[in-house]
C-alpha cells in the first residue's frame, strides 16, 4: 500500500535542527484518509508532512477555523518562527489536524473535528473551550489541496472549513503564534492585494480559501446556512 511505503520513508530523519517542542508535536498521530475522506489508518505528523510521502499520495484530515468577533472582524495569526512548516506565514485563526483518537475520529456531526478545533484554539491562542462551544462552529465545506513548504516538508490535506463568531480572550502561545491581528473584510483584501509589495507571506490553504470562498462567506457571516456544502470535496489542486 502507498501508506505503508510512505510510513517507511519517514524513518531516520534528523530533526535536531528544529525547535524541541515542535519536534515533539511531530509524533502526534494524524488521521490518514483516502481521496473521499474515509479514515483508513494513522500516521505521525512527521510522516504526513514529508514531501517524499506526499508525492506518493499520502493524504490526511485537517481543519481550518475562521473566528470572527461581534464586529465581524476576522482573527488572523502569524505562525511562529519555530514552526516546521510555513514559519512566519499569515493564516486564518487556527489550522491543524484532528488526531487518530476515539474522540477526534468521531464523524457524526463533525464532532471529532470540532473537538480538535477546541483543543487547538486553546493550545495556540489560549481560547477557553466554553468561549467556543461545539454548537457554535459552522461547518461549511471541505477543500482538498497539496502544497510544498520547502524541499522537505509540505501539506496534502482534506481540510474542514469551520466558521465561528465569538468574542474571546486570548493568551498567545508564542511557540505556535508569532502575532495576531483582527481585520475587517476590506483590510483583509488590502493585505492580500499588497502581499508581494509588503513581503507578507500567506499559507497556501489560506490563499486558496481567500481566492475561492472567503468573501462570499464573510458577507453572510450571520446567515451561513444556504452556503453550506457538506457533500462536495472541493479539489483545489
Structure description:
The chain has 10 helices and 10 strands. Helices cover 30% and strands 27% of the residues. It has a single domain (2-221), classed as Nucleoside Triphosphate Pyrophosphohydrolase, CATH 3.90.79.10. With 237 residues, the chain is α+β, with helices and mostly antiparallel strands. The strands form 3 sheets. Strands 6-3-8-7-10 form a 5-stranded mixed beta sheet, sandwiched between helices.
The largest sheet, given as strand count, sense and whether it forms a barrel, is: 5 strands, mixed
Number of domains: 1
Helical/strand content category: alpha+beta
Number of strands: 10
Please tell me how large the radius of gyration is: 17 Å
Order of helix and strand elements from N to C terminus: HHEEHHEEEEHHEEEHHHHE
* Dominant shape: globular
Strand content: 25-35%
Unreliable segments (pLDDT under 50, ≥5 consecutive)? 1-10
Please give the alpha-carbon distance between the first and last residues.
23 Å
So, CATH architecture? Alpha-Beta Complex
CATH class: Alpha Beta
CATH superfamily: Nucleoside Triphosphate Pyrophosphohydrolase
Protein name: isopentenyl-diphosphate Delta-isomerase
Keywords: Isomerase, Isoprene biosynthesis, Lipid biosynthesis, Lipid metabolism, Magnesium, Metal-binding, Steroid biosynthesis
Catalytic activity: isopentenyl diphosphate = dimethylallyl diphosphate
Pfam family, one: NUDIX
Amino acid at each position: 500500500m502507498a501508506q505503508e511505503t510512505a510510513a517507511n520513508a519517514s524513518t531516520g530523519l534528523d530533526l535536531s535542527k528544529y525547535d524541541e517542542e515542535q519536534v515533539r508535536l511531530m509524533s502526534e498521530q494524524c488521521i490518514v484518509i483516502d481521496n473521499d475522506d474515509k479514515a483508513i489508518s494513522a500516521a505521525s505528523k512527521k510522516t504526513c508532512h514529508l514531501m517524499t510521502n506526499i508525492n506518493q499520495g499520502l493524504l490526511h484530515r485537517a481543519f481550518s477555523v475562521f473566528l470572527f468577533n461581534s464586529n465581524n472582524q476576522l482573527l488572523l495569526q502569524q505562525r511562529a518562527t519555530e514552526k516546521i512548516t510555513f514559519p512566519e506565514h499569515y493564516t486564518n485563526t487556527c489550522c491543524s489536524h484532528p488526531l487518530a483518537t476515539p474522540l477526534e475520529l468521531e464523524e457524526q456531526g463533525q464532532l471529532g473535528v470540532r473537538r480538535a478545533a477546541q483543543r487547538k484554539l486553546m493550545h495556540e491562542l489560549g481560547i477557553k473551550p466554553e468561549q467556543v462551544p461545539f454548537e457554535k462552529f459552522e461547518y461549511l465545506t471541505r477543500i482538498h489541496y497539496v502544497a510544498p513548504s520547502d524541499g522537505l516538508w509540505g501539506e496534502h490535506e482534506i481540510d474542514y472549513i469551520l466558521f465561528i463568531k465569538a468574542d474571546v480572550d486570548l493568551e498567545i502561545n508564542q511557540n505556535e503564534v508569532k502575532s495576531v491581528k483582527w481585520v475587517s473584510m476590506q483590510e483583509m483584501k488590502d493585505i492580500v492585494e499588497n502581499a508581494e509589495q509588503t513581503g507578507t507571506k500567506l499559507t497556501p490553504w489560506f490563499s486558496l480559501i481567500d481566492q475561492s470562498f472567503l468573501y462570499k462567506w464573510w458577507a453572510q457571516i450571520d446567515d451561513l446556512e444556504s452556503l453550506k456544502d457538506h457533500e462536495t470535496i472541493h479539489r483545489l489542486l
